[in-house]
Amino acid sequence: MQIQNSVGIEMVLLAPGSFTQGADNGNYETQPSHTVHLSSPFYMSSRLVTFGQYERFRPGFRKNLQTIRRLTNTDPRWVAEYEHAYQDDDPVVGVNWHEAVAFCKWLSAKEGQSYRLPSESEWEYAAQSEAAAKEQLHAFTGQIEQWCLDWYGPYPNGEQTDPAGYREGTTRITRGGSSWTPEGTHAVAGRMSFLPADRYPGLGFRVVVGAMPFRYIEHQPRPLCQSEVPQERYDWRAQQVESEEAIFLTPIDFVKIPDNSTGPLYSDHNHFPSVTWCPNGDLLVTWFTDLGKHATGEEGVKLNIAASRLRKGSQSWDAPSLFWSAADRNDHSSALWTHPETGLLYHFQGTGSYPNQGNQTLFMRTSDDNGANWSAPRIMSDVRSMWNPHIVTRTREGVLILSSDLNFDQPMWGRIIISHDDGHTWHAPAGKIHGQHPGIVQLADGALMAVGRDNWNTEHAAVPGSGVPISTSVDLGESWSYRREPALGHGIDWRQRPVLLRLKEGPILYIGFTDKSNTAKAQRLGIEIVDQAGERRRVYGMFSALSFDEGRTWSHHKLVTPSSDDREYDGGGNTDFFVANAEQSEPAGYLQALQTDDHMIHLLSSKLHYRFNYKWLQAATLAAPK
């Protein structure tokens, strides 16, 4: 049976019935398959809502879309996000979940019937139905992705009747995939999800009329990183380590994902850590986890954010758990930070509409209970771009600074986004930082100094010379000047990210690598150090240096190595296994560091957690064994 309403939407009647939802041979999101019973008939629109129909509710919507711009991930330059000349009969796109719900409410009042978005189960039931087979229902997969009513969450075990999904969540279900999404997302059982406040040119919706599904799952599964989190405040300063004692602790693994894990945590590829302290004495780390070489890796949609917690007093990290995921999106990447005055935790995240890291939305969340619970995601910029958040810092004047990548082509650039009100509003300055993955500090005169990595294959022609690229800004990132610093090694390449950190003792700490990651062993240049035996020699790999004059000169170069004898470590990520000794250390890794109020410095590479203090940085490198 088919009917047509006053705005021209044709509705097809679907009888009650049962079906198998999900797929056991699919991705983890579709498992387990289970029987679903729908006890009431409902009508579904034969096609997606069109621009002509939607503009009866919101006139001029297409014109508003044409004003939306995004940055390309190449030049970068501004382009139209919605570049097509959409016709009245084209499916409406660029509608967020809240706007789709508002349209349903408007249509309900107009028609005197209860219009709404389909539940996920209704959508899949209809897509499998005889009506779909007879083409009474159209365009389910591979054309325009479609909003559903439900919050995203893992399927429960067992049969369900009239399921409405979870009562709360962070992303809403979308179904069907689009020409923007990989072919694997086009399966009828395939599941995706998206921020409900976000929009993109491949996402629309269809409507149903029928009884509201009423069986909710009350709570999402709670990941280990958010479980049993004590709320007693810990006095970090009272635990300050003795400044006269050099301390270096054995590196420990923070990833610890079991072999052959295929989602939502993946054993194949893990790196890009971000670490912060919690007021209760814990450390919290996030990183991205993906299928690596078995899929499209960092550029694919099987890329989630994992987390682990080093609980107060513990010497080992918890088992990893899922921290953030928009299903089948490129969630690339995360940054954590803790407000030094309020103890509020911040989480910054890029999430993609297109299956790579170059077309992302940037959002943030906060936690006032040590990361046990998080606020709803809040979109920080209406510009879709290559938002890869890296490092968070705060100036003496209270300006919050988040560093990010800017583009994926060559030459590669970084940038910052800033807030003058602790994250309530944000501004992206126009200037570009030389190189991706920038670390950043504020200098004594108020200027910003950033260090980035070079291009994969070429150098920035505008910045000749050797050494790591240094960018300096005196106007909070609106413009930058560039130079190279040969005292900090021979450049940073892919598989590497440097650290730039203002220590509580005053100096600026740099941690990087002596040579680019793709340098053949015979061609490594290394850096020269004087070791504890007074011998002047060259070392290779990860090293530290200190500046006592705001980055003008660097001294105390030191190999970051745990032993003078050979010790093998698994560096994870793109680093793999390496041998550390008095001559060489970890050759690559995506580094991040913080110094807690007990004055311990925590350095994380792609898999390993190093711990040492300022006194250790001042001491000479271990002597080579005789």
Please describe what this structure looks like.
It is elongated and about 90 Å long. By secondary structure, it is mainly beta. The mean pLDDT is 93.
Q: Which percent band covers the strand fraction?
A: 25-35%
Please give the alpha-carbon distance between the first and last residues.
89 Å
Q: Which structural class matches the secondary elements?
A: mainly beta
Low-confidence stretches: none
Annotation field: number of helices: 6
- CA radius of gyration is 26 Å
Features:
five-stranded antiparallel sheet, 626 residues, mainly beta, five-stranded mixed sheet, Sialidase, elongated
Structure in a nutshell:
Residues 281-564 form the Sialidase domain. This protein is 7% helix and 35% strand.
Topology record:
Layout: E1 2-4, E2 10-14, E3 17-21, E4 34-38, E5 42-45, H1 51-54, H2 61-66, E6 69-71, E7 78-80, H3 97-111, E8 115-116, H4 120-127, H5 130-133, E9 145-151, E10 160-161, E11 163-166, E12 172-175, E13 192-194, E14 203-204, E15 208-210, E16 215-217, E17 248-253, E18 269-277, E19 283-290, E20 302-310, E21 321-324, E22 329-330, E23 334-338, E24 345-352, E25 360-367, E26 378-379, E27 389-394, E28 400-405, E29 413-419, E30 433-434, E31 436-442, E32 448-453, E33 468-473, E34 481-485, E35 496-497, E36 499-502, E37 508-513, E38 527-530, E39 536-539, E40 542-547, E41 555-559, E42 567-570, E43 577-580, E44 589-590, E45 592-595, E46 601-604, E47 608-612, H6 614-618
Parallel strand pairs: 4-10, 9-14, 11-16, 20-22, 35-44
Antiparallel strand pairs: 1-2, 2-5, 3-4, 5-15, 6-7, 8-15, 9-12, 12-13, 17-47, 18-19, 19-20, 20-21, 23-24, 24-25, 25-26, 27-28, 28-29, 29-30, 31-32, 32-33, 33-34, 36-37, 37-40, 38-39, 40-41, 42-43, 45-46, 46-47
